[in-house]
Amino acid sequence: MGAMDIGIDLGTTKIIIYKPGVGELLREPAVVAVNTKDDTLIAAGQEALLMVGKTPEYIRAEFPLENGVISNHVMTELMLKEFLHRACSSFLVKHRFVICVPSSVTEVERRAVVRTIVHAGVRTIYLIEEPIAAALGAGIDVMQPNGSLVVDIGGGTSDIAVISLGGVVLSESLRYAGNHIDEAIVKLMLSKYNLSIGKKMAQQIKQQIGNVWNPSSDEKTKVRGRNLLTIYPQQIEVSSLDIYDAISPFAQMIVAAVKRVLDKTPPELASDIYENGITMTGGGSLLRGLPELLTQETGIQARVAENAIEAVSVGTAKAFEYADLLQTGFSQEQANNY
Ligand SMILES: Nc1ncnc2c1ncn2[C@@H]1O[C@H](COP(=O)(O)OP(=O)(O)O)[C@@H](O)[C@H]1O
Ligand SMILES: [Mg+2]
């Protein structure tokens, strides 16, 4: 039965469609380009990403789930349909699908996602909550009466959850994640260097030299942008210390949220978590120094899962093995209702 199952991680920045035993059928940036005159698809994924910020008036290219909410239903639907078609058009009907949508997405939006997938031809659909999927994917045995703390940091949303006995005991979801660091870097480059840069450049800076633990003036990278005073393109070199102020508030916010969740955690579970440590997933958890900072601030060992970026997609597909056991965060949707 397992071979007939497919997991979809509908992330805010990327989409992975995963089939156990086969691997990833698709991994694409969650971006789509649409012709605004007739709402037809122009490009999706990598190809659409190249268009962002460079489109003529009649084309709209964007990440429709960027902020952890569905900003545009038409674009989301066109994107999902295209990816389903590319990854698994020949076996949509035969397979059971489990989908993980960002936890901040509303019930109405969630139903819209299911509707799109039903309309694409899928008959059996389950939804899974992000923290459960992340924990399963990171290899945590979520069925045990043993508390785990999972921190998943994506592009648009971060989730902190305590899991035990196949259910989410308590959780907090923030509409604040990796992409917000990029925005902060854009602002800092403007105010500190009069340099106007794009979000892609900012993301590159973050990934290359972002460091919230031991930033130094030796870790440097080249930054290209436009000097606002001369209006000319300019290239400068910045260090991880130079950009620390743009990144540090983000790290503090995550630390504070984890502390809030720990404060509310019942003592027995808290002691499990102390033993087991904190598991970090999502691309945002790869920010250098974040596990060290979390460990220092909470007194609990924080580790980034080996498959941090893939964990949610792997966990979604794995959820079928536990379908009858998962207490919360896993539900079947009736195709007839859509
Ligand atoms: N090495 C890295 N260092 C810091 N941030 C990273 C790194 N790799 C990816 N990211 C960030 O992770 C975020 C995307 O995480 P991901 O889990 O793929 O998102 P989502 O699940 O929301 O689609 C982006 O903001 C991206 O810039
Ligand atoms: Mg994610």
Automatic annotation (TrEMBL):
Gene Ontology molecular function, alphabetical: ATP binding
Gene3D superfamilies attached to this UniProt entry: 3.30.420.40
This protein's UniProt keywords: ATP-binding, Cell shape, Cytoplasm, Nucleotide-binding
SUPFAM superfamilies assigned: Actin-like ATPase domain
Annotated binding of ATP, by residue: 155-157, 283-286
Oligomer status and interactors: Forms polymers.
Name by which UniProt lists this protein: Cell shape-determining protein MreB
Native source species: Merdimmobilis hominis
Lineage of origin: Bacteria, Bacillati, Bacillota, Clostridia, Eubacteriales
Gene from which this protein is expressed: mreB
